[in-house]
Design goal:
The chain is built from 12 helices and 10 strands. The protein is an alpha/beta fold. It has one domain: NADP-dependent oxidoreductase domain (TIM Barrel).
Length: 313
């Protein structure tokens, strides 16, 4: 495993982290069982992974409970990231970034995680309207001052709302950013550039494009309606990236052995990216993820992969 300084926080983290959305057990396929999830977490730990990214909404709290159980005896050596702002208690899973709701979420997350602090607390995709109405930077400052989180930041989706946050962060409150970034997803190129200029560490969610960049899924794949990938990864979407996937396949060469390694190495070689947080539901996936640690792509390969058309959302 390779380790990096996590931007302005000064923390040292493994460059390959563990994304704990899927192990929450909801809407990521039918092959998720706690025993396999715990085995994946322990394998990642044994391989040197120190950063674990979860959220109160992942599995309606179940992901945090698993992380809390896993962390027993390890807490001081782990970097724990969690999030709040999605009201998973309601059927519509609406957003809520009011001060009182977020402070409640933080307290409940600490209880599920079995700790009195987290290393990073992120607001979970606040759009520009929520940011302005609820003065979220003030809440973030209060959270940090409370000692219940060491650092604060945002977990975002598309670029517009993130750029709005950057523009209005006059006091440099944002310590950490999480956003989707991979070979195919071109949505946050400008966001990553600005974060790098501000020394804000970027964690890349979906570095494997929800598994698409493992080569496991293709044009014939049809996700169940309840799967998180169903709405976006339609047959038409798969068809639209076939040319790009052929380019990706052509770039697999030693020391890179698989498409997944290539996808993770691309992120790790990209300026401004601090850490990748691929998910793992079992030991095999955990091993596959950590096998990318230390891999760097040459300039020509990066240029070729960056030339893919991809998509923006």
């Amino acid at each position: 495993m390779e380790y990096r300084v996590f931007g302005k926080t000064g923390m040292k983290v493994s460059e390959v982290g563990f994304g704990a959305w899927a192990i929450g057990g909801i809407n990521w396929g039918k092959d998720i069982v706690d025993e396999s999830s715990m085995a994946a977490l322990n394998k990642a730990w044994d391989c040197g992974v120190t950063l674990y990214d979860t959220c109160d909404a992942y599995g309606n709290g179940h992901s945090e409970l698993l992380i809390g159980e896993f962390l027993k005896g390890k807490r001081q050596d782990a970097v724990v990231v969690t999030k709040g702002g999605t009201n998973w208690r309601l059927p519509e899973r609406s957003k809520n970034f009011t001060r009182d709701y977020l402070m409640m979420c933080l307290d409940e997350s600490l209880e599920r995680l079995g700790t009195d602090y987290v290393d990073v607390y992120l607001l979970h995709v606040p759009d520009a309207g929520w940011q302005d109405r609820e003065h979220v930077f003030e809440t973030m400052k209060e959270m940090k001052k409370s000692g219940k989180t060491r650092f604060v930041g945002l977990a975002m989706w598309g670029a517009a709302d993130t750029l709005h946050a950057f523009e209005n962060d006059k006091e440099n409150v944002i310590d950490v950013l999480e956003c989707p970034f991979n070979i195919l997803n071109k949505s946050n190129l400008e966001v990553v550039k600005i974060a790098k200029e501000r020394n804000i560490p970027v964690m890349t969610s979906q570095p494997l494009a929800s598994g698409i960049l493992t080569g496991k899924y293709g044009v014939g794949t049809k996700f169940e309606k309840t799967d998180n990938r169903a709405g976006f990864w339609t047959p038409e979407r798969f068809e639209s990236v076939q040319k790009d996937l052929a380019i990706v396949q052509s770039c697999i060469k030693p020391p890179v052995e698989t498409m997944a390694q290539l996808a993770l190495a691309y992120c790790l070689s990209y300026p401004g990216i601090s850490c990748v947080i691929p998910g793992a539901k079992n030991v095999h996936q955990a091993e596959m993820n950590v096998s990318a640690a230390g891999l760097r792509l040459d300039e020509e390969t990066m240029k070729t992969l960056s030339s893919t058309e991809g998509f923006v959302f």
